[in-house]
Structure of DUF2073 domain-containing protein:
Amino acid sequence: MQGIQMDLVSEDRLAKMPPVEKIRFIIDEVKSGKILVLEKGLTPEEEATLIEMTMTQIQPDDFAGIEMESYPSQTDGSFLGKLFKKSPVRTRLTVIGPANKLKTLKKDRDMISALVSNK
């Protein structure tokens, strides 16, 4: 049976990993052709590190890079939350996959629509 493997990764599994190990895990899984759905998104710093490390490993015939989409973080929209600039309440789901297999078609506040190809 051929197809695309999609792994749903729990917040607990990633929380046990230091940031560098988390990034390495994601890159290794995506390089093997898997699409990851992270229950809890990455921090902005982790996303930047993931992109930076991925860029150094792109090889046209072997690894095309990554496609990554996340829901925007939900913030405290109350008057007091805005006044005290509270940090986001929670980060949300992130989808990461090989750039040559995953293409984002549409993204809004509550939905990510993606096309997965088996090329």
Observations:
- Helices lie at 11-15, 19-31, 44-55, 79-83.
- The beta strands are 6-9, 35-38, 66-70, 94-98, 102-107, 112-116.
- The first strand starts at residue 6 and ends at 9.
- The two ends are 15 Å apart (CA to CA).
